[in-house]
């Protein structure tokens, strides 16, 4: 059925799924939930009983994280965690990770740049979290655009993430929980058609194999254009088989493999209306917003631009239950991601847009392969020391990442042959079509050039060793303390061999960083009643040079190799409540994070850890059922991100000796950090077989640079959904995205352009369940 519903399981099935660490959304009725909590000895909180099957369309709130590192239920975890379940992903019509995360306020998407790859580029609470994506708790390295066809749910953990994941940002991380084999038999499939040549087919088949074994396979084919963006679009396909052994016994083994590849014409976005504050052209000063042209204006070249990706991941997951709540789990994974593209960035760095009404078709290119081998061992269990109850997790992790990165050269090059630069006073054939008119550019211009791999190719090796321990100490049913510590040894090297280009020899480059760092988290939890918690927490995070493993903006270089990790700390005060017979989860939190040793330019012109950043904010969230027929999923986030000390800048005239002065951008707002963001998705069962739903996403203005003179306006977008159950095996779902065809920009962070969000689209999907 296409609306959110609960499923009844036998006790054996529930036990099997729980030991696989897949969250169970249990519909719980608390007896006298508002009664005072016992505070003496071993007296218990009010009992929680399972009432059986809930109403057909009732959304059961998640009880626990799928991660072994969470040692308490989500209700009692002193941290902001948003779980996006498979039902919400399906209902909203999401087909990618970025689509699904649109339902989580406080997350913005960054735009690609020359040093920043095309792909999932997340900012959480204002901090770059590009490398903080995990699959079943293990870091997913390598730039890519992730699909949802093999996803069970998505967990967004906000705040410092280093205690959980090691090197990380201060904003948080995203953990993708994948589909695994179950002791059940089912056949699920969907076929979707829609506007903009949308075609999508998925299948999810699970079969028991006798005894305690089962196999499952998820399949996907997708082909579509981007609504409102002309020729932009492409196709992709994927397969994700898993097989499990001993699924109801003490020793469970899951073998899984994931393959996804895509081919597309990547989007170019629209350039900013470049501010010009000095010189003869100051009268042409732009306002810093994206240029005002039709939504389908595309500055790329169909004869040049492409993007091909491929991802392969194999995992062996073994878990043994010793009894009495003690378990040992080992996960081994090997993955490889490839990305190959030529992508036009509409560059405005020379002021072409406001001066000449032209755009330079800058060619950003990338040929990259990332290989990752990782192993994680975790011991989890329960224990007592006197009257204190412990729920603990401890483990060790090892990983090795290798990224080989290169780019393309073109002959003739992509400069304007008339000016020998990227300045474009004119456009058209005489510029080799490297310069396009601002209005009505021709995507099929006969651009001709020879493409070869550049000899300037880099290899980055990153090795990590880590040990961690977490514990939730229950002093009384009313008072808990969550503590955690992680130690990391991080070693990364960059090597670029000597090469000769156009008769000029460039020396070899070697950079190396070796950091050891520890991170902590602690949270005191007070429970006014069994269905609630109030917490105060503290956490830290470390971001060493080369944090991105060579595949993003935080790259290792000679200039930063000797620097210590950037250190962040976060304080958070929050509360969580499960109300309406524990069918609706409500949360609220205020927080402040600071980074006192940000990497900036020091007074002597070198890069040093002397800057300061801070973010303070507030958020609220709601998940679950208001009535048997009415479900909600949404939240609101307010962020005030400031660059308190941006270091120094060179104020000398071109060609003159450097003169370093305090940055004029001190006190400016973080790029990619909206002050207000909110999302809401809600459904209502108007009949037993008819459900309607809708959602909105709203965000205030977002700056694209630290100067705060280029920005994307705020927006509000609306979506709608209707589903109809034909019979117990077949249902239909209609989605209309961007209902009002709002023109808005959903990706910033490059000072040159903003990403254009898709226009209005409609899809009709037939879902089959057997």
From TrEMBL:
It is a multi-pass membrane protein. It comes from Pseudoduganella flava. InterPro entries: Beta-barrel_TonB, Beta-barrel_TonB_sf, Plug_dom, Plug_dom_sf, TonB-dep_rcpt-like, TonB_sidphr_rcpt. Pfam families: Plug (PF07715), TonB_dep_Rec_b-barrel (PF00593). Belongs to the TonB-dependent receptor family. Keywords: Cell outer membrane, Ion transport, Iron, Iron transport, Membrane, Receptor, Signal, TonB box, Transmembrane, Transmembrane beta strand, Transport. One of its GO terms (biological process) is siderophore transport. GO terms for molecular function: siderophore uptake transmembrane transporter activity; signaling receptor activity. NCBIfam families: TonB-siderophor (TIGR01783). The keyword Transport applies. Residues 74-172 form the TonB-dependent receptor plug domain. This is Catecholate siderophore receptor. Residues 1-28 form the signal peptide. Residues 271-739 form the TonB-dependent receptor-like beta-barrel domain. GO terms for cellular component: cell outer membrane. It is found in: Cell outer membrane.
